[in-house]
Write a structure and sequence with these properties.
13 helices; flat
């Protein structure tokens, strides 16, 4: 605060503060509408008939709203099967990535060993390589190992390409923790793993939550890997299934089914984000610290 502002009368300062609050709330509301507006429009479209969906929005857009599209994708299509496949692959990848990244981040962030910087640099280097470049050799290796057309193979594929960023987050999370906690645990006779599980685990939760959210969202929306690795229809994930709907693979193109399926596919992401949001910002802040 400047000297002029500090000497200003309380009424003048409070009036300026109120104007700033009004501007802050107004800008926040406009930005919220920009993000929420398309979602609300998608929900409304998913409740319309096929004839209304292909027409521009008008005064009659809210007439005859029904759950017919939602009932249709559950009764006429293997939508639950695709939803289950996506949940298995995404949750499995998120859990495995979080466990491996936590152990790797603990080692890189809390211990000193020869070549530590080189190992961390190589991990960061992997962030700069798009997985599409390595797709052909990886597919050939997975095919030789019998991991194609397998949900386990797809989980391994997703874990491989999400680990570098996850290790980066967890390494910086552990590096930001005070060493006094660890030293006190060692004095009390705790082992290395005991210190990680019983002492550092609560402090690492924001980083773990960030890794789980990022990995889950990346796997939930990933299309190319699922499309090429999974060839059986009963193992298809939601992005591949929605493409099949768009291409008319189930007897014809139904825009109502496509929009309804897209809206349903948002629900697990929203639930996961709401459940872990209190850790999310803390985890991002910890991950941005470089020691």
């Amino acid at each position: 605060m400047s000297a002029e502002e500090s000497l200003a009368p309380p009424t003048r300062r409070s009036a300026g503060q109120r104007r700033a609050n009004v501007i802050y709330v107004a800008v926040g509301c406009v930005l919220s509408l920009l993000f929420v507006g398309p979602l609300v429009l998608a929900v409304i479209r998913s409740l319309q008939t096929e004839a209304q969906i292909v027409q521009p929005p008008n005064a009659n857009s809210f007439d005859g709203l029904s759950l017919e599209n939602y009932l249709g994708i559950f009764t006429r299509l293997p939508f639950l099967e695709m939803l289950g496949n996506s949940l298995i692959v995404s949750l499995g990848s998120a859990v495995v990535t979080a466990v491996i990244a936590t152990l790797a981040g603990y080692g890189l962030g809390r211990f000193t060993f020869r070549g530590q910087s080189v190992v961390f640099g190589v991990i960061l280097l992997a962030l700069m390589v798009p997985f599409q470049v390595l797709f052909t050799p990886i597919y050939l290796q997975f095919n030789a190992l019998g991991l194609t057309d397998s949900r386990i193979g797809l989980i391994i594929f997703y874990v491989t390409f999400n680990l570098p960023f996850a290790v980066f987050i967890m390494r910086n999370t552990f590096a930001a923790m005070p060493r006094e906690l660890e030293e006190a645990a060692y004095v009390d006779g705790a082992s290395t793993m005991g210190t990680l599980i019983h002492v550092l685990r609560p402090l690492a939760l924001p980083g773990v939550a960030t890794v789980v959210i990022f990995t889950f969202l990346a796997c939930w929306t990933e299309f190319l890997g699922a499309f090429l690795f999974l060839t059986s229809q009963d193992k298809q994930t939601l992005p591949v299934g929605l493409l099949t709907l768009i291409q008319g693979g189930f007897g014809g193109i139904s825009f109502g089914y496509v929009i309804a399926g897209s809206v349903i596919s948002l629900i697990p992401c929203v639930i996961l984000f709401i459940a872990l949001q209190r850790y999310y910002v803390q985890g991002l802040a910890a991950g941005s610290v470089k020691n």
